[in-house]
Amino acid sequence: MTSAAAVSTARPAVTPARLPSLTGLRWIAALLVFGFHAGTMRIIAEPDYKAVVDALFTLGLSGVQFFFILSGFVLVWSARVGDSRRTFWRRRVAKIYPNHVVLWGAALLVAWWFADPVLPAVALENLLLLQAWDPRMGWFYSVNTVSWSLSCEFFFYLCLPLALPLLRRASPKLLWVLIVALPLLILALWPAQQLVPEVSRWWFTQIFPPVRSLEFWLGAVAAELMRRGLWRGPGLTVASLVFVGTWVAAAQWIRAELWTTLLAVAYLLVITAAADADVRDKRSPWRSRPLVWLGEVSFAFYLVHVLVMTSVLRWSGDWGTGFTGWRGPAVVLGFLAVNLVLAGLLHRFVETPMMRRLAPRRPARPASVPRQRAGGPDAAGESGQQTNGRSTYADSR
């Protein structure tokens, strides 16, 4: 089997740089998606309270954009010499598939409880993570609706080991051209959607895996530049301020076809700055123990939150009606707590043990090799490595 990472001049093994800030940031992205869905479900009926939620989370769906960029960055950053394509693919399946299967089964049980019809072909397509390729509205958002993003990720995982040798051999000039070109391609998708039938335009810009892969490759190229010590970006404080400024401006004044591109750039700056801060042992507010734990369960949280909220609201008869007064914010906070508990259980009893059982073991690194500074040619951080079945570094999910 051709190695996925042995693609250029061999580099000596180095102690992996931990990236806990990226793990903490994963929780912020998951929280943005949760807030967006809480707002679109109209749980809060009080206009003043709803206005606050809308102001904070109106762009929350872009949290998925963050996950895609982070996925590309982490997987290129952590690629190891000697890993085969089969090993890489097996590790990624072990990471995402057990949680997906559990939520797939839970969603079908909920559909049965509410007597919602589910076509066998729809259920099978979702189980196999093929739904993002299907432009039919009832198909790409089928079963557990948020799993469409896993369908995209699965495509990214299939492509990366094939593209990584080219990325490793690419000249610095080409990498910088890609860093500029990829956001421009994201921007170009908005006029390009006019070539697609109107009924499929949302699917084309928001769901279609090759289109969403532009964000993944943006993170991947930035990681390769950082590995070579060529990345030139702002520090974490400046990057965070740029992101906040971009978020506020995008929410208030900028059209969707532009803010999608601007937020992709802002997310990239925060991700690279946080990674650099971790490897260089600089200050970072995102690596506290509570935030790291929240980041570790964020994948499970993302998978459970919509199914839990919609099921409870339908069961209680409050779907689409909202809660008046203080009860609206209280219900949202209650959903946040319940989803966190369920995510913690899923992470503890499904995700972690199945990773230990299904993922191939990585060979231990030499303990005596000194740690390298970020940006050096040998600073290939090991994000997503499993130690005793527990994720100790930032992962793509």
Automatic annotation (TrEMBL):
Please provide one cellular component term from the Gene Ontology annotations of this protein: membrane
Keyword set, alphabetical order: Membrane, Transmembrane, Transmembrane helix
Looking at the UniProt entry, the stretches that span the membrane are 27-45, 57-77, 97-115, 146-167, 174-191, 260-279, 291-310, 330-350
Biological process, per Gene Ontology: lipopolysaccharide biosynthetic process
Q: Does this entry carry the keyword Transmembrane? A: yes
- Domain Acyltransferase positions: 21-347
- Does the keyword Transferase belong to this entry? no
Bias category Polar residues: which stretches? Answer: 383-397
Pfam families named among the record's database cross-references: Acyl_transf_3 (PF01757)
Q: Which InterPro entries match?
A: Acyl_transf_3_dom, Acyltransferase_3
Annotated spans, Disordered: 360-397
Its domain of life? Bacteria
Identification of the protein by name: Peptidoglycan/LPS O-acetylase OafA/YrhL
Protein's organism:
Micromonospora taraxaci
Source lineage: Bacteria, Bacillati, Actinomycetota, Actinomycetes, Micromonosporales
